[in-house]
Amino acid sequence: MQVILHTGVHFTDEGRFLKGMQRNAPLLREAGVAVPGPSRYRTLLSEAAHRLAGGAPAPEAREVLLDGLLDEDPEGVSRIVLSHPNFFSVPKLAMQGGRPYRKAEERIEVIKTLFEGDSLEVFMGLRDPSGFLQNAYREGAVQDFAEFLDGADPDAFRWSELITRLRAAHPDVPLTVWCNEDSPIIWGEILRAAAGFDESRKLRGAFDLLHDIMAAEGMKRFRAYLHMHPTMTERQKRRVMLAFLDKYAQDEALEEELDLPGWDGDRVARLSDLYEEDMRVVAGLEGLRFLAP
């Protein structure tokens, strides 16, 4: 069985990944892909992560887990898609130890142990460090930003450090990674990749994130254009999306107000530049599928 684990990161798709997969549940079910509801497993996986750290599960743990996850016969399921943005950490502990998600390697080991004999793949959307750090700090209600950072230097924050750690600890676990800022353009590809479908397969909700950032008139014209050009390739569709966004994007939907103590516009801009450089590093790492427009 293929086990797809979507791990966030925090403050990226805000639950839309799972909703997008569930919108296509009947089609996925026909292809042997199961998308169980999060209430069935998120608490269970978090508890297992604490219980199994450094230990081994009971021999029947996988069967018990699948019984709780699936309504259908496991024999008819070739792929299961799970989404748990808090699996590596809750937001307030995201920088514990001065590094992003310090227990990520350990948590992946838990999933490998629970699904021993199955093939695991991790999906992860990354985002700009400034917004990530601010949102995690604010949501965690930590009294002091320095306390939240736990010794980390925001100017040295690199997602490539996390990805490199995961690749070193689990070279047998493929990673699929993308920039959250690109999600509206590649959302259909993200969903298809998680489902194991090629680009010819149409899925419901492929333009949901585009809808969130484009004016209603723009979306109406975009869908009409797609209707008039039904044979466009995925690459051509992306060029069209970018062209429509250039004219119809809702600026307020693209902007995020940052209010971190001691930070100014120059520092945020510098971190954004460093983030773009870091994403080029991530895209070049081995054993990784990087989805981009």
Describe this structure in words.
- The chain is of the alpha/beta class and 293 residues long.
- It has one domain (2-205, 271-291): Rossmann fold.
- The protein is 49% helix and 10% strand.
- The chain has a six-stranded parallel sheet, with helices on both faces.
- The relative contact order is 0.15.
Task: Name some characteristics of this structure.
alpha/beta; Rossmann fold; single chain; 293 residues
Chart the SSEs and their pairings:
Elements: E1 2-6, H1 16-23, H2 25-30, E2 33-34, H3 42-52, H4 61-69, E3 79-83, H5 104-114, E4 119-126, H6 129-140, H7 145-149, H8 159-169, E5 175-179, H9 183-195, H10 208-213, H11 216-228, H12 234-248, H13 251-254, H14 265-283, E6 288-291
Parallel strand pairs: 1-3, 1-4, 2-3, 4-5, 5-6
Helix pairs in contact: 3-5, 11-12
Unreliable spans: none
**Quaternary structure classification:** single chain
Report the major sheet.
Answer: 6 strands, parallel
Average pLDDT, all residues: 92
- Class, according to the CATH hierarchy? Alpha Beta
- What is the CATH topology assignment? Rossmann fold
Shape verdict: globular
- What is the total domain count? 1
Distance between the termini: 29 Å
Q: What is the helix/strand order?
A: EHHEHHEHEHHHEHHHHHHE
Strand order of the largest sheet: 2-3-1-4-5-6
The Rg value, from CA coordinates, equals: 20 Å
| Percent strand | 5-15%
Count the E strands: 6
Short description:
The chain contains 14 helices and six strands.
